[in-house]
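Example 3.2
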Amino acid sequence: MNDGTVILPWLVIRQDDNGNRYRVGRYATRAEAQKIADSLDGQGRKQLYWVEHLGQNGNGRSTAD
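Structure, written as tokens:
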């Protein structure tokens, strides 16, 4: 089914020093999301960044192996 919506199943998540998690952005491909996560992680801050994929039920699934 194609209703004209753009699918952005890849998320970049940030966790701060207090354990709070925030969605930084949604992306069409894992490569695009990983590029953003890597660029943010490389800025020398103490936050942790990673990529997750949205499942069919809308839940994020960590892709860091």
